[in-house]
Amino acid sequence: MRNTLKSLFFVAQLLLAPGGSALWAADLPAPSATAAAPLVEVSQSDLQALQLRLDGLKQQISAANNYNQLEGPQDRVQTFILDIDRLSASLLPQQAQLAVQLGVLGAAPDTQIAAEQAEIAAQRAQLNEQKNKVDATLKSLAALKQSAAELITQIAGIRRTLLESELTLRTDSILSPDFWSPLVSPEPDDRQRLNFFINQVKLTWATVWAPGQRFFTCVLVLLALAFWTVGRRLAERGLTWVCIHRMPEGRLRRSALAFASALATLGTTAIALHLLFYACTRHEPLTPMLQTFSEEFEKAVYACVLITALSRALLSTQHPSWRLPAMADSVALALRPYPRILAATLLVLVTLVQVSNATGMSSQIVIAQRGVIAIVVIVILVPLLLRVGRVRKALLTANEPEAGSTFAGAIYSIATVCMCVSALALLTGYVSLARFVTYELVWAYIVLAGFYLLVQVVKDACEYLFSPRYSAGKTIKQTLGMGDRRLEQISIVLSGASRAGLLLLAVITLFVGGIGTTFGQLTTNVMGILGGAGLRKLNIVPAHLINAVLALLIGIYLIRALRRWLDNEFLPKTDMDPGMCASLSTLFSNIGYATVILLTLSSLGVRWTNLAWIVSALSVGIGFGLQEIVKNFVSGLILLTERPVKVGDLISISGVEGDIRRINVRATEIQLSDRSIVIVPNSQLISQNLRNVTLGGSAQGVASLELMFPLDIDPEQVKELLLNTYHENENILDKPASYVRFSKLSPDGITLTVTGYVGSPRIVGGTKSDLLFEILKRLGDAGIALAKPASAP
C-alpha cells in the first residue's frame, strides 16, 4: 500500500508538472538529470560493517557468564535492529521511485526497432541496475535483521537459563569467612581487570582534563550538578505553580502536583546525565568497556531516582493535603528518610557491581557483591518495617481509619515475608536468590508506585474532561449536545478502560522487567506479549486499534440516527401498520449492529480464516449452554420476518393474555391489562400453541352474556328486551346480527345467552360492562327479576 501511494504520487508529479501532459518517453532527460535529490547509498562496506557489528555482539553474548552481563548486549542488539529499520526505510522510497520510472519507460521490446532510441535503452539499463542494487541491499538488510531478531530470542533463552541456575546455586553462607575472602583478597586476575578498568578511566579523564579543555569540563560538570540540585527544585516549583494556578481545584490538581514532582526529578536527572556524558565523550568516544559501564550506570541512576521521586510524590510530607494515598501523617513521616537512604546505597553498590560486570570479574566476586547488596537492603528495610509496624499499631489503638487499609496491610505483609525469605537464603548460602528477592521487591515498589500515580492522573483527568462542572465538560456538552448523564457515562467508561489497561501494563511490567531495565526494553517486552504470536495470527496490530474504535463508534451513531429517522420520519408516512413498522425498525437495528461488529473486526485486521478456534469454542458452548440463547435468537429473527405476531397484537399463550409491546433479540415483552410486563422467550412463541386475537387486523370481539331468569317469565318479552339493548349500543355491530339463544332449562330457572359482535377484541370488556348496566336497568323498569340460585343444602 505504501509503495502504491508513492507510485501514484510520482505519477501525479509527472502529470502536474509544467508541460507534464506532453511529456513523452522519447523526451525523458538523461539519467544523470533525473534525480531531483541525492539517493541514499548503502555500500558493500557498510553492510560488512553491520555484519561485523553483529558478530561482535554475538561474541559479547557468548562471553557472558552471569545474568546481568547480558543486559547491555541486549540493548545494543535492539539498537542494531532500529538502525537496520532506519536504513531499510530510507531505501524503500528509492525502490518505489525506480519501479515507477521503469514502469513509465516500459519493458524492453523483443527486437530493437527504429523507434527505440539508444538513450531510452541506456536509461532503462541504468535504472534496472540501480533497482537490482537496491533490491539486493534491502535483501541483505532483511537477512541481518532476521539474524538479530533470532539473537534476541537466544539472549532471552540464555538469560532464563542463567537466572534459573543462579537462583538454584548454593554457595558459602554469609557467616562463613570463605564468603568474604574474594572481597578481602581478590584473585590476581580480578585485580588486573580492575586495574585495567581504572586505567581506562584515567585515560578518559586525561583526555577530558587536558589543557584547554578543563574550563569546558568544569562548566559542563557544574551545570550538570546545578540541574541535579537547584534545577530540580526550580523545575518542581515551576510545575507546582502551573498546577496550582492553571489546574482546576479538586482531585486533578492534587494528582497533577504529585505527577509534576516526579516528572521534575526525572527530567532534571536526565539532563544532568546527558551533560556528564557529553563532557566525557565530546572529543573521543568511550572504550567498549566504559561504554558498557556507562549504559548500566545510567540504568541504575534512573532506578534510584525513580525510588526517590515516586516516594516524594506519594508521601508528600511537606503538603499532606496533596497526598494521593489514604495514609496517615505519622506513617508518611516514618517512611520519609528511608527511600533516599535506599536509593543512595543501591546507587553505590550497584555501580560497584556494574564495574565487575563490565570488566568480567570472576563469579566469586559477583556472588559476594550480590550478598552485600542483599544484606544492605535487609538492613535498611527491616528497620523501616519495624518502625511502620509500631506506627500502624498505635493508629489501630487510636481507631484511626488510615491504619485499617487492607491494601496497606497486604503490602506490609508481603514485604515482611520477602525480608524473611531473603535473610534465610543468605544464611543457607542461596545468595543469588536473596539478591533476586530484594531486587524484585524494590522493582515491585517502583512499578506499583509509578502505575498508581498514572492511574490517579488518568482517572482525575477523565473526570475533569467530561464533568459538566468544569469548562472542558461544558464545551463538550455544548459542542456535541450531550446530556450530563451521557457525559458521566463516557467519563466512567474511559476512566475504567484506562485504569484496566494501566493495570494490565503494570502486571506485565512487573514480570518482564527489573532493576536496570530500560524503557526501550520494557516497551519491547510488553509489545512482545501484547503483540505476541496469538495476536499476530489474528493480524491484530496496535495501528489498527484506532480504526476499529472509530468504526465502532461511527457505526453505532449511524445506526441510531437511521433508526430515529425510520421511526420518526419515514415509516410513519407509509401505509404499514405500527406493528410492521416496529418489526422493520428492530430488524434493521439487529442487522446494523451485526454489520458494525463485522466492520470493526475487519478494521482491527482480524482474518476470518484465523477464527476457527472461536467457532469451535462457540460450537461447544452452543452444544452445552448456549443452545437456548441461540434458539431464542433464531426464533426472534423468524418472528420479525414471518411476523406470525407483531408489535401491537393481542395474543394469548400459556394462560397469559396481553398486547405485544416489543420483540427483542432473545425474548418478547407482553403487556397485560394491568400494565405489567411478562417476558416470554421467543422460542415459546414459535413452538407452542398461540392465540393471536388481532392477526390480520380484522378480528372482531364477541360480547356474550349469560343470564338466568325465573320460570314464570315471558321469554319473548325478555328476548326482545335483550336484543333492543344490544342494538342500541353503539359498539355492537349490525353484521353479524346479535341473537339470543335458549341455553338451559332447569328447576332453578331459564338460562338465556345473548351474543353480539364488536369491532375489536380490545373493547369487549368495556362493552359487556355497559350492556350489563343497561340490561339490569331495563329489567328493573319492566319488573323482571333475575332468578336466584337455590341455596346449598
Molecular structure report:
Its main location: membrane. It is found in: Cell membrane. Residues 586-627 form the Mechanosensitive ion channel transmembrane helices 2/3 domain. It is a single chain. The chain has 793 residues and is an alpha+beta fold. The protein has 5 domains: 2-168, no CATH class; 178-526, no CATH class; 542-610, no CATH class; 636-692, Roll (SH3 type barrels), CATH 2.30.30.60; 700-782, Alpha-Beta Plaits (2-Layer Sandwich). It is 69% helix and 6% strand. The chain has 25 helices and 8 strands. The strands form 2 sheets. The chain has a 5-stranded antiparallel beta sheet. A 3-stranded antiparallel beta sheet has the order 6-8-7. A hairpin with a 2-residue loop joins strand 1 (650-653) and strand 2 (656-663). The longest helix has 51 residues, at 118-168. The radius of gyration is 42 Å and the shape is elongated.
Distance between the termini: 98 Å
Helical segment count: 25
Overall geometry comes to elongated
**Uncertain parts:** 1-38
Number of strands: 8
Strand content: 5-15%
Q: What is the topology, as strand order, of the major beta sheet?
A: 4-3-2-1-5
- Please give the largest β-sheet: 5 strands, antiparallel
Q: Whole-number radius of gyration? A: 42 Å
Helix- and strand-based class?
Answer: alpha+beta
Give the number of domains: 5
Fraction of residues in helix: 55-70%
Arithmetic mean pLDDT: 78
Q: What's the gist of this structure?
A:
The protein is of the alpha+beta class and 793 residues long.
